[in-house]
Write a structure and sequence with these properties.
about 350 residues, alpha/beta, Rossmann fold, 8-stranded mixed β-sheet, 11 helices, 14 strands, globular, AAA family ATPase, P-loop_NTPase
Length: about 350
């Protein structure tokens, strides 16, 4: 069993130091206890994914949720609590370590939303989004793919028998109809195991829908809990429906092929996202990462900006049909890093 690495940041620096000292003496062969005294240091460890567990004060629960990617987070409490993730600070080393083991045993059951948007046309956004959905389905995760592109073509990748599509859902939402019934009526399942809503035939319907309705729709999907992952596939356009999707997403993946045109267009997208971050959609930049696809090792160029995380890079794959290309991409380890 590999040694687990635990970052400890309590508001009481003395407790942090003593906790790491005593626990390290007792369980040093099993775990490395790393005392952290500054918030920016803790944030750096989390960003680098260099720890397996974070233990912090219960007062910081809002800043540090129970799961940050694949990092488990626990909270020191001043009173005994049966709530998962909480550790009573005044107990024996053995009981404290048992609490850590229980934190590691917890499974993240929250519904995750990942939005893929294209920096430019023909960069493989839909293929990347579909590949990620396929990978999750292959891992026996229930995943729903939603194509919100203005000119999307879900049928080129996923096949279903249900004639109702996302256009039908939008119409029902506008009419105030029974959205639960509409969602069930429009749902399809591909042979890969991916559930999906077929894309709208009329692109103006996507642009016309109110941001509040899209937000309510995505919120309902999360609250229902029918799916573990929601994958949104969209080209980038200035419309309220897309902004709602980006706001609801846990991760925004911008697909870019590294060409001059794509980098130029992404620069404009990033400028707009920074404005949204400062106004109506705070936090959107922090959860955004670039995924380079069809990246040419000789001619491709990365968009140089230290503010933007990079999820990974996929070089030009052997020629294949759209479905086969998505299947090839689904096997690549780079996709595993998206929600880390």
């Amino acid at each position: 069993m590999k040694q687990i690495r635990i970052a400890v940041y309590d508001l009481d620096a003395v407790y942090t130091e003593r906790f790491c000292q005593y626990m390290g003496e007792r369980y040093g062969q099993t775990a490395e206890f790393c005392p952290v005294y500054e918030r920016n240091e803790l944030d750096g460890l989390i960003a680098a994914r260099s720890v397996d567990v974070v233990l912090t004060a219960d007062a910081l629960r809002e800043e540090y949720p129970p799961f940050i990617g694949d990092i488990h987070v626990g909270y020191f409490t001043a009173e005994v609590s049966e709530e998962p993730g909480k550790i009573f600070r005044f107990q024996s080393c053995r009981e404290l370590f048992h609490g850590i083991e229980m934190i590691l045993d917890q499974e993240d059951t929250a519904v995750k939303t990942v939005a893929f948007i294209g920096a430019n046309a023909a960069v493989g956004t839909s293929t990347a989004a579909a590949a990620y959905a396929m990978r999750l389905a292959a891992e026996e995760k229930r995943v729903l793919y939603i194509n919100m592109s203005d000119l999307g073509d879900t049928g080129s990748i996923f096949q279903g028998v249900n004639p109702k599509d996302f256009q039908f859902l939008l119409t029902e939402m506008k009419a105030g109809a029974d959205i639960d019934a509409a969602m069930s009526a429009a749902l399809n399942r591909d042979s890969s195991g991916v559930y999906f809503y077929d894309n709208a035939d009329a692109p103006l319907s996507i642009m016309d829908i109110e941001e509040g309705r899209v937000a309510a729709f995505l919120r309902m999907l999360k609250e229902r809990g029918d799916f573990r992952y929601l994958i949104i596939d969209s080209s980038f356009s200035v419309n309220h429906g897309l902004f709602a999707a980006l706001g609801a997403a846990d991760k925004v993946v911008v697909v870019n092929d590294g060409t001059f045109v794509s980098n130029q267009r992404f620069h404009k997208i990033w400028t707009l996202m920074k404005r949204l971050d400062l106004s109506t959609h705070p936090g959107i930049c922090q959860k955004t990462a670039l995924l380079y696809n069809k990246f040419h090792s000789q001619y491709g160029k990365r968009y140089e900006n230290p503010e933007i995380a990079v999820a990974g890079s996929i070089e030009v794959l052997p020629p294949a049909g759209t479905v086969q290309m998505a299947e090839q991409m689904a096997r690549l380890e780079v996709l595993q890093e998206i929600l880390r």
